[in-house]
Amino acid sequence: MTGDPLPASDRPSAGGAPEQRASHADRDKTVDILRVAAGDGRLTSAELDERLEAALSARTGSELAALTADLLASQPQVKDLIRINQRFGDVNRTGRWVVPRRMEIRARGADVKLDFTRAVITHDTLHIDLDLGPGDLTIVIKPGIVVDADDVAVTLGDVKVGTDAHPDVPVVLRVELAGRIRAGDIVARLPRRTFLQWLRREPRPYQAITG
Hints:
Elements: H1 24-39, H2 45-57, H3 61-72, E1 81-93, E2 102-115, E3 125-132, E4 137-140, E5 145-155, E6 159-160, E7 173-182, E8 186-189, H4 195-199, H5 207-210
Parallel strand pairs: 1-2, 2-3, 2-4, 3-7, 4-8, 5-7, 6-8
Helix pairs in contact: 1-2, 1-3
């Protein structure tokens, strides 16, 4: 037989093993990084289109890494741990905040809101250790973000997480909650319409995805 039956991405490397194939989740993470970079003005619209096309057709991890190498170098470094200690008032993480690998939230008489719809996500799991109450924890998600609250002990409150309403969307981030909450609720939901969007009768965010 002549020729090499394997594509270049599947041929053994110098160490004898083929390079690992990229998954749907890997491509989605790269797409998210590219879109955030474009929103920050670090990519032109033409560059974004070109890199998105390359990301969606990439077959290996190295192909994806090449598309974001010059962008990640200028991004804020991902922290291993963020600690939040709050007494009274509100705590909010919104916009393009960088998701750490772990969070510890200690709050008394305070409501905590974590909005992941525009957050910079560079890894697939976030573990949150809770000691909260009285007060509520609200997690605003988008398709591809899953919240697991099975390891939280709740006293005088409710957990409203529900099941994944977007089973066809690859999971890009799993938020794992553990700890306790006293006299408060845990709610994970999609973003709500603004008052102006409601007046215009615009659809709820991500409504089209739910079908």
